Amino acid sequence: DTLIRLVEEIPSLQAIKDWSNDPALHERQTHTLQTLSRPVTMLTTHSAWLMASLCMGANGLLSGAGSVVADLQVALFNAIKAGDLNRAQALNERYRPVAQAFYAPPLLDMHNRMKECLVLLGRLPKAVVRPPLVKLPDSEIQALRAALQASGITRDGALLQAA
């Protein structure tokens, strides 16, 4: 297996960033890496199904969505690590509207959606889009605004005391 060979050949390797986008493969790789004689940290980038990925044992996350919802992601991570399934489920319900909005088709617009949310929240002055991508239509920006509201996300964060 390539991952095992990399771990064996590169002693300084400490972590793997996974975006296999396949839950079964992700779980298998996470388990494999964490049961080695020298466990390797699994960092998920599966923000579209973050709760599931964390429940599969991911040790952390690398997420563009964190630019918008880092506090919500951290709270979800902490709830999973604490074994508090009820809190994790409640936080995941808060996270779901923005995750669905960010990772809707076409997926290549995910970062443009996050930038537009940062503008809507007043955290970024302008959402710069580089070719060949194009600016999102106003209707999609309004859908992003609705997702932020549904998730309870404001300029200051996710208002976690309500979760």
Could you provide a short overview of the structure?
The chain is built from seven helices and three strands, in the order αβαβαβαααα.
Rg value: 17 Å
Strand order of the largest sheet: 1-2-3
- Helical content, roughly? 40-55%
What is the overall pLDDT average?
A: 94
Q: Major sheet: size, sense and barrel closure?
A: 3 strands, parallel
Q: How many helical stretches?
A: 7
The parts where pLDDT drops under 50 for at least 5 residues are: none
Secondary structural class: mainly alpha
Run of helices and strands: HEHEHEHHHH
> What is the terminal separation in angstroms?
41 Å
Q: What is the 3D form?
A: globular
Quantity of strands, as a count: 3
Q: How large a portion of the residues is in β-strands, by DSSP E?
A: 5-15%
What does this structure look like?
With 163 residues, the protein is mainly α. It is 52% helix and 6% strand. It has a three-stranded parallel sheet with strand order 1-2-3. Helix 2 links the parallel strand 1 and strand 2. The chain is globular.
